[in-house]
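I'd like us to work through together how a protein chain folds, taking it slowly. We need material for that, and I hope you will provide a protein of your own picking. Go ahead whenever you are ready, and we will take it from there:
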Amino acid sequence: MDPLRMADLSPRKKRPRQTGASMSSPSQDVKFQDLVIFILEKKMGRSRRAFLMELARRKGFRVESELSDSVTHIVAENNSDSDVLEWLQAQNIKASAQLELLDVCWLIECMGAGKPVEVTGKHQLVVRKDNSANANTEPQKTPLLAVKKISPYACQRRTTLNNCNQIFTDALEVLAENYEFRENEGSYLAFMRAASVLKSLPFTIISMKDTEDIPCLEDKVKYIIEEIIEDGECSEVKAVLNDERYQSFKLFTSVFGVGLKTAEKWFRMGFRTLSKIRSDKTLKFTQMQKAGFLYYEDLVSHVTREEAEAVSVLVKEAVWAFLPDAFVTMTGGFRRGKKTGHDVDFLITSPGITEEEDQPILLKVINLWERKQFERDLRCYATHERKMALDNHALYDKTKRMFLKAESEEEIFAHLGLDYIEPWERNA
């Protein structure tokens, strides 16, 4: 049995969760010395508090087990400001003006960002104005905790570069890549969909309860998430990263022009390094592969946004020399807000192109196509939810039996009945 096949894994015996002081870990490196956090156990529970304390310490935050004068931020969950102040009074502690009383959503955002985030209104505890009139009323939830229903389609989710769940998505993407190398498309897509959904969440998953009602999280995905929550890492990911086949495929496919079939061939021939492949006289390379080896270092190096902008100027000048009316749009990762990338993508279109009578040109100045999941889900949504067909050239309404004209991305979204998603919100 292949130990990396998630489908073949037998259920893992769940270990008892440690709580309280017994869960504390060796001293962590504190990155933010001026910030001292105390997490209130009231209405949160001991286990959840202990887990949050441990997770925050791993992220470099100073978290005190006991309340002291050094504490600068008190974090609470499902408590109003009055609840916390009453608790402090019961402990014979007087709250100072410098002491911040915040909702747990602030700490979760901090851990997601890997640094303290600015305190805004949504992080403040709810003010309980009239205790007598609202004695039986639950405190209002913060906007962050009142999460709307999450769509299974990436084209209905706003996904920025602020990934609050990178520890999970990194693991899932490694496993997805391994399934891709093994040409197991079903498992590859399952893990990529799960990673895509987690990237869109405005909060960090800290318990399995947080995964309830989140679409695209199959049992084998939840298994990975639970293991990371409990152990801080995934044993399957460690096994994949140390697997010789995975390492070889990742290395071979980093060469321009090399696909899975070629990588499989080289691996079976016993190659493990690019230098051995380059020097082998029996191998024949395609023109793309020759270029891939020749410019390998340049092709795998990062491109900065400044370099991309400089390339954009050169491309526009070259295009306009022949097509003065052409539109040149930088697309890809840089359009989605990334600061670095491996290449610079452009969409070049000309309004002067003629169109056939019954086949109008629909996508002129348009860049709907983003990597991975957003493009795939946009096409799936069109097919399954709107009875339309969307590809690189046209949007066709199967019910009306007609092509739908569109000259902008906004019009395509409108035809599909979708809210327009800005490019920087398509990092699915």
